[in-house]
User: Fold these one by one.
Assistant:
Number 1:
Amino acid sequence: MRLGRLAPAAGGRGPAGQGAPAADRFGAAGPARPGRRRRAVRREVRRADARPRRRRRLLRRGPLRRRRRHPRRVHVPVRRAERQVRAEYPRLRAEALAILVHGARDPRETAAFAEGCVRAADEGLAGIDFLYTPYDTEADWTPMYRLAERFAEAGLGITAHAGEVSTANIAAAAAMPGLTRIGHGVHAAADPELMRLLADRGVTLECALTCNAYFGVLPEVDGHPLTKLVEAGVPVTLATDNPVQLGTTIEREYALAAGLGLGPERLADLTRNAIRAAFTSDERKAAMLAELAEAERTRLSGGRGGPATR
């Protein structure tokens, strides 16, 4: 669950997002086109910059507003929503993230955002997701390093979008204080040095296969470098990115990964990576790892009458 977002998500409307099956919704969006993701990210930033009043309103909303607030204001709605969804999907766990879109353009707003996030760290906010621009060329991340250091000192997890449309900004993002995850980062597969950097620092990549194909930033899913990253020792997880817009589910992402050649053990490793990299409590991590270990024991013992598989 993400709160405090400073820019709307890019995406279409119409029949493709209105309850059609996943495959139909994915196909209805049309063929992937190179550069679509770049334009989408730039459009998000332009919209955010063009609407300062709306940004200030969003900035003060939810976890970022201090006055007359209950000390568990972030925690309470997140847990309530989590309980509602778990009624149908009992294995779901959720935490709240705030997204900072190019925070260096208005120092006053950025300072207010940072202050609000630090306060919200005691009220249930779990992490910060940085979306910095320029997105497809190298940027100066120095202002973000100072913010990240402050967030990390407050106990917030740090992730950043980078390496989705090119190798740009992967190394810079990986150097952020407290950063443990990068959103996408798949173009690191084109550079052995970048893969070694990520593996050595234990930076987890959040890979969204359907998203990468949808926006045309990589070839079709069959050509995705997921297995190359795994074999290089880079911690990788699977993600849906925006499941409503993309018409996908986490089950579908795992099925796509299996189609790339990852067997049950490797797929379980991806889940294990996700748990270890999660911005959540040690108690929750331990419980989820125990649940995964039990599921693995059941599979290896041929649970429910089936043969053991590896």
Number 2:
Amino acid sequence: MKLKTTTLLTTLLFTSLSITACCEKPAEDAKVASAQTHAEHSHEGHDHSQMDLTEYTCEPAMDIKVHYVPVTNEHDATAHILIDDIEYDMYLDVSASGELYRTETGLTEGNGLIWHTKGKDALLESFDIAKPHDQASIKTIASCQKN
């Protein structure tokens, strides 16, 4: 009986580790791609008029427009957020409710951005990139509503 229990626990442990490794890798790849894309992307002269942009009204007043790219077989879902005409490329992250996009490139050095939407409401938040999932490091920048 002890051997069966040990075998079962070992199997569960390896299955859990495999699932965790499987599911975390795309998010890590997306983080690296987001940071590299932003660093290499030339924003000057970039024409966003051809994009399908969703506009938001925010408090405090900010001009925020978002181009959402849905998940496909070739890539994960992303959001290209224009904040006062500066583009931030974000990857979809895990959210308990709504959709949450994240990038390690922020408005200030050492901080990343979170764009969290639910229905017509959205929050623009910053976080300390040294502590990306520390709730105490997350600060609300703006509260927004879809136009």
Number 3:
Amino acid sequence: MSRAAVVRAWWLCRHQVWPGSSALSADERARADAMLRARDRAAYRRCRGALRGILASWTGAEAAALRFDYTATGRPVLPAWPSLDFSVSHTADWAVIVVGTAGPLGVDVEQINQHGTDIGALARRFLAPTGEPPPRSDADFARAWTRYEARVKAAGGSLGRPLPVEAATWPTIALDAPTGHAATLVCAGPALPEVRVRLPWHTCRSPVRSAGDPR
């Protein structure tokens, strides 16, 4: 395995405070302020601050100095570190962040259906075209959906748009997720990466002093 093919993952919970949380840019603060629900505003600030803190530990840059560019589909990238990729996903209570040098990354976490969502209709519309079998339960659907959305993120696409043919061959890794959730990591690079969870979800009950050694 190539030494360069590494991916690291961090979990954070709703009440956690990360280094970098005060380093958001003006446009990031404006984006948060424009969100209608207080819960969404708080989740965005928390996730974005944590991402900045983690990327600062990885790159050696100051969290506030990191500059993001965006692709045509809104995917954030770090132009100063083109070989470094990252992906973020969150639910109401949990978030997962992945960073690595294994090519384009996608991660998704979903809460297993507790609100009566019509999983059959969603599966027929979004999952069946990708070859996923019909889900037999809410848990099956959550796992299949995270595989699908993580592939979409790795491809830099959007929901409902066709995925690249090669997406079916990308390494797909089920992550250990909090109770009642499912999570998947997809790597669109040429090699299966070494994946390490730097902060497991079951340790996420206290403020984080540092992202630590990200490698």
Number 4:
Amino acid sequence: MNSDESGARTSSLLTATDKAQSAIVEFDSKSFAVKRNGKVSHGDVFVGNSSGRTLVADLTGATGAEPRLRQSWVTDGKTIQLSWGKLAANTSYKISRDGLYLGTVKSNTFIDRHPTVKAIYTVQAVAVPSPKEVKDQKLTSSNESFGYSWNIRTQLQADPNISQVMALPDNSHHTKVWYRTFIPSQYITIPSITPGCEYKSPYKHGGNNRGYNYDPYSSFKTQQAFEVSWTDPNYFFVSNQVGATHVYDSANKLVTSRTASNSGMKIRRMSAWAADRQDVSGTESVTNPFCSSLTGSIGSSWRIYMLRNGSYSMSGSHKQMPNHEIYMKYGSEWVDGIGNALSIKVLYKRDLLNPACLWGSAVCPEAQILSNG
């Protein structure tokens, strides 16, 4: 399907000033004035009427600090127009609705003339920017494959006496993110040369003996977690935990256990609390407790920017040992393309590269974290 058949239009991103009571939106090549709907408490939702047409615009994410953080949508009850931040000039955007491919466009606007009542649209950037464009977008060369995406949740609403528009389920007052590292095997043999460490082969360390799992009670080597509230500016829950390190002999008999310090794990807000967006960063440097001369056997640095409507952008880096997994939870009304309820979103997974990183006997390269949705 080409852009003309899909109904795409060249149009600027929906615009609004934070906390403004009115805005101008472009819909189907026309401009409309809309006013904030004061009955909606969980998003920046605007409503307008023109020539018998009722427009509803969700501008919660319209004013992100960077283009890749912006998104919004507007509907007249029959069609839905999506808008998102425009990236490099040679970027195209692949559009799908609940997993169904709709088309690819070069503009940063798309109109779906046959929408469903509720849907999650995915907009995937498909291009490789030039070095200059990478610099202009504040990206690093390791991110040149792009891969940015936007997940835009929409709902048709044609009632002129509108009382509520769902930017998120009503019970989605909190968002929780947890970042864990774990060793997938049951045991991991300690190298024969381990400078500064108390044990070497044939001794072993115990692993977590599991695969990727979003269960917040799964075992881990390290876990960073935080929870934010979209209604309470004083609520900011933070947890930095380290799992015990066990030593086993060649017969798999437990010899001893220690738990490393969590003093190298930090999570903090990067900006003041806001009802529609939150910016959080974290760092992690945890040492093998049986290797006193090492620092940061497990290490990461990350930052995540979240909108209340469920969109996010996360970036960072980490040592490629052990396995890394990041999950997000909010609400209970997510559904996939066939109607299954979802409440957990996978942000990132990466397998371990070299177990020797844990004992300082190998150079441990870093992997880039780049996740948007």
